[in-house]
Records
---
Amino acid sequence: MRTSWCILFESIRKEIFNMATIKFSHDTVVFNSHFNMNSFLESVDSFLKTMPDCRPKGVAEQIRPKCIVIYFPIEFPPKRILPVVLNTDDAGSYRSSTPLHLVWPHRWEHDKGPDEFCTLLLKLLEEKVAFVVSILGSHTNDIPVVLEETISKLGSRVLHRGPVSKEEYWCILMKAHVVVSTAKHEFFGVAMLEASYCGCYPLCPNRLVYPEIFPKECLYNTDQQLFRRVKNFSHKPESARIAAAELQVSEFKQGIFFSFFFC
């Protein structure tokens, strides 16, 4: 029998709910993360119960044996980007010539948590923490008000805002120290992996797909924990990239292994 593949990536997930019964005819159902797969299987039966008619039972149980995970392919720069060279004083301690550079490389949409990120930035500003930030990512004309107001308050601390060319994007990630996610909805997180590959230290919420990909030391449970981690890095900004390079790299399950030193 010819094997047919049903690619279940985030962009078509909503349609998959509406076509769940069709999946019985496929031999293999592919998801881009275990979190994506599990969240679909845990909710598909209850969703189908809301349909006015044609409500098959046990869909998750019948689809589950066909499910596999293939992680989303990421195109990294052609050459491995080396960590920045640290400056040290005579005692061997790190000296920082620039303030902590945060990067938030996400769509300017509410599901990416701009409110939480802006709360972090304003708290850093209030406590006079030295930092600059690049707020990257695409956006429509309907920009969240909280982002507009925060960017205005930060003034020259905002080094970049909005989408940039791919070449400039990689250059920014090479220079930044810490990449932050405040997402409320994420099935994979390409931008976080791109920034991590370029040497940024990743700080992610301990939810969604992130525990599947990043080591525990990169995860935070509360906004206060995130603030403390960022503030600690601000004392020695360059050490964030060194810490990123020393991380025991993320494991991609089912025999797939991703390394921050992958080349």
Note: The mean pLDDT is 80.
---
Amino acid sequence: MFRNQYDNDVTVWSPQGRIHQIEYAEEAVKQGSATVGLKSNTHAVLVALKRAPSELSAHQKKILPLDTHLGISIAGLTADARLLSKYMRTECLNSRFAYDTPLPVSRLVSMVGNKLQIPTQRYGRRPFGVGLLVAGYDEQGSHIYQTCPSANYFDCKAMAIGARSQSARTYLERRLTEFPNCTPEELIKHGLRALRDTLPNDVQLTTKNCSVGLVGKNTPFTIYDDEHIEQYLKLIEGEERSPGAGADDEPTRMEDDAAAGAEGAAPVVATVETGSTD
């Protein structure tokens, strides 16, 4: 790991205006297993790749329900995601108890952004090492939000995060205009195809290593695992992958700096926005 004198604490700025501890947390997200989110006019879908620490253990859950109208998928440190999901679930319950109404998705994501921002400016704290894709449906329609360790969050039409997620984002960008009018089944097919592009060529999607979350109009948040996802995997069985699928992502900013440092050159200058809630 490339280190320097400005990465000892999250409160230390580098001369280039960067906070390296936040960038390291973003690297944890990039090393997590991939997850994809996309939406139509009436539904939102999450598709996630599950990993098993060993052959003796079960695959780790990647999609978590929060309320009947929304759920999340994670990439990064599962323990951090567990804490954030508990906080989000509590806020959803508080809204139903106090106002007898589901919490709007945008308001929940804003609250999570504020929580993520706190450890980015306090001494002795570390940023959350997890990225979230939030899928929900409320009075404003269907939503896909992405949250980052830097406390930025984005309202997305479609998004993929995690290892090799660039291949999935390329697939989503090419077919972005098709999503608004898709049926739930077609959305799931697109999500599975995008997720499949993040896998090495010798690995296939199975009922054990992937899961799907669906929410939408008159459709409560539902997770499909194991044998329940087999019907959707059969729909894309035998299809060819997109060109370049399974390739590693572009070199990260830290990797560029490490290469520059090894060659005796100056580090690449770049800035990172921290704590903003765009």
Note: Helices lie at 20-31, 78-99, 105-117, 165-174, 184-196, 230-233, 253-262.
---
Amino acid sequence: MEGGRRGHLATFDWTAKKLGCECHVQETVRDVQYLHNELMFAVAQKKYLYIYDNTGMEIHCLKDHYKPTHLQFLPYHFLLVSAGEWGRLRYHDISTGQLVAMRHTRLGACHCLTQNPRNAIVHMGHHNGTVTMWCPNMSSAVVKMLCHKRPVTSVAIDHGGWYMATSGMDAQLKIWDIRMYKPVHSYYTPKPAVGMDISQRGLLAVAYGRHVQVWKEAFGSKQSLPYMEHELSGSANSLQFCPYEDVLGIGHEYGFSSIVIPGEYHELLQW
């Protein structure tokens, strides 16, 4: 699924390379997120959060989520999480349609949002360089870490839930052990990273400017050189590994690109 800043939405079957649906919402699209399966997806638009089905038909308009900027979905809890322009974090139960919790971070707009797949804790990056961790049954942040001296631009969690990678406007890329909340090591990037993702095999992809770097075994020991590098035709703004495939998808100012990353593939067992 892809969403453009000018309002274009499109879904397609990755394996068959067939278009599923395509529509234009006539306003800014800030983030998109699949729900429990491919039949429904959420879209953070200019003013509210909308739910669409696999044909592109609008199902719901969630006005409780005002001016959302980032989305996450907790699959084992059926909770849709959104972060708004004023730093408000909202949890919405999609099985009952009720707003479960709303938390005020009091740290301004959220710059990035991700989740820990091991314990479903939501991580938020803020303009003062801190990363906060949240759960819906706590009124305040579970953990607050000062990770950078300048605003945090992206956060990524490995699939084991043990390591966290953060990047900031200080052009630093830091690896953290979130079992002890201590830094492991850090790297410097020529420009501040705008997006990061960690594959199932532990490969770390970093996007900055028109460049994408992939680091191998970046958590165990400090690496001197990246595993792979790729140059784009335009400035990157997001990237994500495709599960069970040797493919990295990259969103940039001219559209979408996919590149092959050898060694990222995680075997899918079929019983």
Note: DSSP finds no helices and 26 strands in the chain.
